[in-house]
Amino acid sequence: xxxxxxxxxxxxxxxxxxxxxxxxxxxxxxxxxxxxxxxxxxxxxxxxxxxxxxxxxxxxxxxxxxxxxxxxxxxxxxxxxxxxxxxxxxxxxxxxxxxxxxxxxxxxxxxxxxxxxxxxxxxxxxxxxxxxxxxxxxxxxxxxxxxxxxxxxxxxxxxxxxxxxxxxxxxxxxxxxxxxxxxxxxxxxxxxxxxxxxxxxxxxxxxxxxxxxxxxxxxxxxxxxx
Length: 226
Hints:
Blueprint: H1 33-57, E1 62-65, E2 72-74, H2 84-108, H3 116-140, H4 146-149, E3 155-157, H5 170-186, E4 213-214, E5 223-224
Antiparallel strand pairs: 1-2, 1-3, 4-5
Helix pairs in contact: 1-2, 1-3, 2-3, 2-5, 3-5
């Protein structure tokens, strides 16, 4: 019995597929921290504008002081609608929900910063905006002072107040919800975030001028024409 012929080729090795680098969309990176801090700062500033809109749009009633001991009557007569005092919360919720929707979309469309860090940034930013708007409304929509209530004939306006503290969570909730829904619809583990470490796509070499091999009679191999 003879051994294997050394000239025969051995079994072919299975082809190895190149490793595929997964994106860092879910994790994010340290480079996302400055963008997240900037998001928090910008949303906190926008909270001032929302607070001013709240003071302007919230329904409020005016009363006229009729006696020195604090007697009041509705300016112009009539009765105060009981739903008026719930209108403050309703206007605040709508304003913060609108800002949360815009903030969530704006952060998502920054494809290079998608991930957990951006999600935390927009959530904290909307919380800062909610607190800022609340404090601005509370400052500008203060209740009448004791001096005003004791001066007969003075027209006073009802205070602007946030009765449901849970309304502070509406803005962050809407912003996070936008991010979650967009991530689900993306159907990608990297959230569509470009990977800076990925190699550039290979460009096929263009056919340029060069020697053309031509067959030569009487020879077994091709020759190169100069």
